[in-house]
Amino acid sequence: MNLTKGRIAVITKLKYGNTNTFFVRGTVGNLLIDTDYAGTLPAFYRAIKEHGIKIRDIDYVLATHYHPDHIGLVSDLIKQDVKLLIMDTQDSYIHFSDDIFSRDKHLNYEPITTEKATVISSEESRSFLKNLGINGEIVVTTSHSNDSISLILDGGECFVGDLEPIEYLGGYEQNEELKNDWEIIMRYVPKVIYYAHANEKVL
Fold first, then answer.
1. 3-class DSSP state for residue 13?
2. Which residues contact 62 (CB under 8 A, 6 or more apart)?
3. 8 pLDDT band (50/70/90 cuts)?
4. Rounded to whole angstroms, how far apart are CA atoms 17 and 57?
5. How far apart (Å, rounded) are the C-alpha atoms in residues 78 and 134?
6. In sequence order, what are the beta bridge partners of 184?
7. What is the CB neighbour count within 10 angstroms for residue 98?
8. CB neighbours of 18 closer than 8 A, spacing ≥ 6?
9. pLDDT-derived band of residue 159, with 50, 70 and 90 as boundaries?
10. From CA 42, how far away is CA 189, in angstroms rounded?
11. What SS3 class is residue 67?
12. Prediction pTM value
């Protein structure tokens, strides 16, 4: 399902497992946000075919963080010439899930290779995305994990991965990290929040 369509980017939600994956089509290049668990490649193929997307349409893949249910297909995509985009704050977490995947030999999981990856900082993200014809920024939001990031488009679309909803703030007496993350995001005046494990939220 195409969720939004505007002058700058078209967003397609791909649901083929337990993690929402988002395909952001820019005017010059395209970005895939997150993947599901290792072993879901056949389901991924079916999902992109349903939406008229081909592997060659995916220029970059970006993980909101490196937990196993978000990066299971990254190695498979890299082998098909999809480029990996890494934030500099994520660099030391790339292999966080290797041990988890290695416990199930049936997955035949191959650790992510980073030799050809593109590493950028949050400050560099706007110019990088602009080269894809996508207007927005990638910000660091670490309340879920130290390597978590969020992508915020100028059109108001915000992809937050596993960040806990802003509504949860009232349920905590002290959660300064979550509060700080939402303060960062709200400065951009988002219109729609896209979660990895829940339906999108219109603000």
1. strand
2. 31, 32, 33, 34, 85, 138, 149, 151
3. low
4. 21
5. 21
6. none
7. 14
8. 36, 37, 69, 197
9. very high
10. 37
11. coil
12. 0.94
